[in-house]
Amino acid sequence: MELLEIAQRRHSIRAFADRPLEDDKLQRILEIVSVAPSAGNLQAYEIYVVTDRRRKKALAKASLGQEFVAAAPVVLAFCARPERSAGRYGERGRRLYSLQDATIACTYAMLAVTDLGLAAVWVGAFGDDAVSRAIGLPADVLPVSLLPIGYAAEEPAATSRRSLDDLVHRL
């Protein structure tokens, strides 16, 4: 599949089929994420693979009651490791680069999910402390995004996008 086609096919899916995610597909997603670019190649993020039903329910509750989080067979929690980046880049690494690393990794995962014929949705609306408790994060790890993954049980219509003329500013 061409990258443009993958990007165009990617949609936010909030309804998942009652079908398990194959281990080889999950492994492929994680392999693709592992080659995502990061500041200084430090990979100042961690990925928590959540399949435990109780933990997924806790993540759904932490995500302001978004029950589709618990319905997905797998939830990937992308978390920043600020101190890993701060060692080389100081405060900017702590405050920004580690967050960017985690978001780039999550984006790579979303594209891999689509390429494998799976579905996902980026979840950023959650209580940090509640997510941290739900998955047992160390104090120095910050949750950045959740990515519920599975097979789609819905097919949303394409959404409108801003035109390139509106979005791009050539200087």
CATH architecture identity:
3-Layer(aba) Sandwich
CATH topology category name: NADH Oxidase
Largest sheet strand order: 1-2-4-3
Helix count equals 7
Helix/strand class: alpha+beta
**Number of self-contained structural domains:** 1
* Beta-strand residue percentage: 5-15%
Q: What is the H-and-E element order?
A: HHEHHEHEHEH
| Dominant shape | globular
Distance between the termini: 33 Å
CATH class: Alpha Beta
The CATH superfamily is identified as NADH Oxidase
Rg is: 16 Å
Structure explained in plain terms:
This protein is 46% helix and 14% strand. With 171 residues, the chain is an alpha+beta fold. It is globular and about 45 Å long. The model has no long low-confidence stretch (mean pLDDT 96). Strands 1-2-4-3 form a four-stranded antiparallel sheet, sandwiched between helices. It has seven helices and four strands, in the order H-H-E-H-H-E-H-E-H-E-H. Helix 2 (23-33) packs across helix 5 (82-115) and helix 3 runs antiparallel to helix 6.
